[in-house]
Design a protein that fits this description.
Elements (H helix, E strand, L loop, with lengths): L7 E6 L8 E7 L3 E4 L6 H13 L9 E3 L5 H4 L10 E4 L4 H5 L2 H17 L4 H13 L11 E2 L12 E5 L8 E5 L4 E5 L25 H13 L5 E4 L8 H22 L7 H8 L8 H17 L3 E6 L2 E6 L3
Parallel strand pairs: 3-4, 4-5, 5-6, 9-10
Antiparallel strand pairs: 1-2, 2-3, 7-8, 8-9, 11-12
The structure holds zinc ion.
Pfam families: Lactamase_B
Protein name: Glyoxylase, beta-lactamase superfamily II
InterPro entries: Metallo-B-lactamas, NDM-1-like, RibonucZ/Hydroxyglut_hydro
């Protein structure tokens, strides 16, 4: 901590979430750029300033921010930075930051509707959606000053390119430096855990919700095509040699999905019933996380036509397609 390596400095900040610490990165480009911005807590802000001070910097020296994605542990400290600072990210993050009234009601409606379809009992739906919103107090209310898309070179960051890496979040991006293969990856690839393919409402103007596990698998295959030497991740250690890690992630996910398929062989089940079987001890406490993990496996199996889905009494019932 507290030093530059190849023009990059890592800041490590605490979060109130089970994932533990989150990393932000400074890039010394033509503009001093902060990639991701911790959670909105006094504790994170104090440590942020202290770690900048070790680099002989203050928050006012930061000239722009690039966000990998909108999750609270990656954006919260924006509310402590200058209100005139430029913030760049993929446009799909915007609604999660500004949280305008339209999106707030769309958000609740989407999750309530989906959770009912998943067969989650009414008395668990409301509290779970509210839990999700509670975490937003650690988020930021800034709005974006510029949008970043696939292969863009962010202003002041000559040599860096944006890679769209959607899945864990809609609008997730990573920054890749062509000359030495450095990737600042956000949560796209972590050394110790696989990021949750979280459910999100349909993109603006669309009706179908995205299928985050399918997007994520595509993202992993895309990363295999890039000569990546080291990943500076949003959580945990830096690592290289991503090919075997990606292969392992893809095959573990496939195995988990096939386990879910076997659960659907005797009789059809709702997503909630599968969720209870997959996560018998934590599903109640962490319903949002466990149901998105479950939906991910079901989406994946549907895409392979290993299972089929039908609607019954306003719930979706999933069944294995037999042999
Ligand atoms: Zn995240």
């Amino acid at each position: 901590m507290g030093n530059w390596q190849n023009g990059i400095a890592k800041l490590t900040l605490p979060t109130p979430f089970p994932v533990g610490d989150v990393h932000s990165y400074l890039i010394k480009g033509d503009r001093l750029t902060l990639v991701d911005a911790g959670v909105k807590t006094e504790e994170a802000w104090e440590l942020f300033k202290a770690q900048l001070a070790e680099l002989n910097l203050t928050p006012d020296d930061i000239e722009q921010v690039v966000l990998t994605h909108h999750h609270p542990d990656h954006v919260g400290l924006l509310d402590y930075l200058s209100t005139t600072i430029e913030v760049h990210a993929h446009p799909l993050n915007e609604r999660w930051l500004t949280k305008d009234n339209h999106f707030a009601s769309e958000h609740d409606e989407f999750y309530m509707g989906l959770y009912r379809q998943f067969g989650i009992p009414e008395e668990l739906c409301g509290p779970s959606v509210n839990n999700m919103k509670k975490n937003m107090r650690f988020s930021s209310e800034c709005s974006l000053s510029g949008y970043l898309y696939e292969h863009d070179v962010p202003s002041g960051l000559e040599g860096w390119r944006v890679l769209e890496t959607h899945g864990h979040a809609q609008g997730h991006i990573a920054l890749w430096r062509e000359k030495d293969g450095v990737l600042i990856g956000g949560d796209v690839l972590l050394a110790h855990i696989s990021p949750n393919p979280l459910l999100e409402p349909p993109h603006p103007g669309e009706r179908e919700r995205p299928k985050p596990q399918l997007q994520y698998n595509q993202t992993l295959r895309k990363l295999q095509e890039y000569p990546i030497s080291i990943v500076h991740a949003g959580h945990g250690e830096d690592f290289g040699n991503i090919h075997p890690l990606i292969e392992k992630r893809l095959s573990r996910q496939h195995d988990r999905a096939m386990k879910v398929k076997r659960m659907l062989e005797d009789e059809p089940k709702t997503a909630f019933e599968v969720c209870q079987l997959l996560f018998p001890t934590v599903y109640q406490k962490e319903l949002n996380l466990t149901i998105s993990e479950t939906a991910a496996q079901l989406d994946y199996l549907l895409s392979l036509e290993e299972i089929a889905v039908r609607e019954e009494e306003s719930s979706l019932l999933y069944a294995a397609i037999g042999r």
